[in-house]
């Protein structure tokens, strides 16, 4: 990362960049792009060895390569982007592109792809400056973060390494920063709905993305090629089945939670009853008095024993339920109901009980506004944390 941004471009270069920006903003094209097999089946060594020729660099690249043992390849972009530009940014899925496409298919969303190249991408000497400004002022702005998290599955990569190299070879970007809106069609092809080349402001980016969504919805009523239509029908059937399975799972989890809560309350009432009975029996042992007839002891017990709790007491706890949606780095989602007086410790216990593999050390993160709930906030109630009546939390793995 350079310590300070380069000087602003000259007027001639700024004019050229403005023309490129206007052309890219109005260039909406639907096409089918066949992805390399390396993206779907694993990146081969020959593809990993490919590197784009870099011209004379005026600044060091912002993302220096990291040794593989430190950071997994799927998390290189996410880790380095957050290191360079801070923690307030769109939620980029730390997974392979094929998994991001699968998540988008299941959620009925489009995929927003950002390919990062801080230098040597063929965009001229002003490219590092444009990339730096685009990341800090556009991608990390509040309006773009909120819009992307609500409407897209975001995926990012570093041009020249990992799967991003194969994607660059397929999409052939003319300049950087480069963004694209894609949609899954089959296991080997994607539909490229929009290309955004060069820097744009936050409002321009949101406008382009919103127009892409509107045009895609309008085009969905038209006749599509047989291959695309069959893929869409299969995707919708799969999504419907997944929704039904998720609904059944949530209902079973809620029922199990309520049953466990009811049993805990019954145990608590039984424990209190035993304690009260022992407390009432102590005066009888010390005084040595005996009832003159059996009914006398029953009446005294009835007088000293507190009235039994009605069946409406546990329902008071179940009324104020808080729905917690937990999203894992691999795209899996789990939803569970908690009481608003429960603490964040209960959420950690629930996540640990799921036994999700390869989680390791983690912390809970709220996306927008971004806030971290680590082990230091275990005693905070869900109501005090602002989780009631519902919230979505992300699992952020720790190094």
TrEMBL record:
The lineage of its organism: Eukaryota, Viridiplantae, Streptophyta, Embryophyta, Tracheophyta. Residues 1-23, 260-320 are annotated as: Disordered. PROSITE patterns: UBX. Residues 260-274 have a biased composition (Basic and acidic residues). One of its GO terms (molecular function) is ubiquitin binding. CDD domains: UBX (cd01767). Residues 1-10 have a biased composition (Pro residues). Residues 317-395 form the UBX domain. InterPro entries: FAF1_2-like_UAS (IPR049483), Thioredoxin-like_sf (IPR036249), UAS (IPR006577), Ubiquitin-like_domsf (IPR029071), UBX_dom (IPR001012), UBX_domain-protein (IPR050730). Gene3D superfamilies: Glutaredoxin (3.40.30.10), Phosphatidylinositol 3-kinase Catalytic Subunit, Chain A, domain 1 (3.10.20.90). GO terms for cellular component: endoplasmic reticulum. It comes from the Eukaryota. This is UBX domain-containing protein. Residues 298-315 have a biased composition (Polar residues). PANTHER family: FAS-ASSOCIATED PROTEIN, UBIQUITIN-ASSOCIATED (UBA) PROTEIN-RELATED. One of its GO terms (biological process) is ERAD pathway. It comes from Leersia perrieri.
């Amino acid at each position: 990362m350079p310590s300070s941004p380069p000087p602003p471009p000259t007027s001639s270069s700024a004019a050229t960049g403005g023309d490129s920006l206007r052309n890219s903003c109005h260039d909406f094209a639907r096409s089918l792009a066949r992805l390399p097999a390396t993206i779907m089946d694993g990146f081969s060594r020959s593809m990993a060895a490919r590197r784009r020729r870099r011209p004379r660099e005026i600044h060091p690249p912002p993302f220096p390569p990291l040794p593989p043992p430190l950071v997994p390849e799927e998390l290189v972009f996410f880790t380095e982007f957050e290191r360079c530009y801070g923690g307030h940014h769109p939620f980029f899925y730390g997974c392979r592109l094929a998994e991001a496409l699968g998540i988008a298919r299941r959620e009925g969303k489009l995929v927003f792809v950002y390919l990062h190249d801080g230098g040597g991408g063929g965009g001229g000497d002003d490219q590092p400056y444009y990339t730096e400004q685009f990341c800090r002022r556009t991608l990390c702005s509040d309006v773009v973060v909120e819009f992307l998290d609500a409407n897209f599955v975001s995926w990012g990569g570093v041009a020249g390494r990992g799967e991003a190299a194969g994607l660059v070879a397929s999409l052939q970007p003319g300049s950087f920063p480069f963004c694209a809106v894609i949609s899954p069609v089959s296991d080997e092809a994607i539909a490229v709905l929009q290309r955004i080349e060069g820097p744009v402001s936050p409002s321009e980016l949101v406008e382009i993305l919103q127009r892409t969504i509107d045009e895609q919805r309008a085009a969905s009523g038209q006749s599509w090629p047989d291959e695309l239509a069959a893929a869409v029908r299969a995707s919708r059937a799969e999504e419907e089945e997944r929704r039904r399975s998720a609904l059944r799972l949530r209902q079973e989890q809620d029922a199990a939670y309520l049953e466990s809560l009811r049993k805990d309350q019954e145990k608590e009432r039984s424990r209190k009853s035993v304690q009260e009975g022992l407390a009432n029996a102590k005066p009888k042992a010390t005084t040595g008095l005996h009832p003159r007839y059996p009914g006398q002891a029953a009446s005294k017990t009835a007088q000293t024993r507190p009235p039994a709790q009605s069946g409406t007491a546990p329902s008071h706890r179940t009324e104020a339920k808080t729905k917690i949606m937990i999203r894992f780095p691999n795209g899996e989602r789990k939803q569970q109901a908690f009481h608003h007086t429960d603490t964040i410790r209960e959420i950690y216990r629930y996540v640990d009980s799921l036994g999700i593999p390869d989680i390791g050390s983690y912390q809970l993160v709220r996306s927008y506004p971004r806030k971290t709930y680590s082990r230091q906030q275990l005693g905070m109630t869900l109501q005090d944390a602002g989780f009631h009546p519902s919230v979505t939390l992300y699992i952020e793995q720790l190094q």
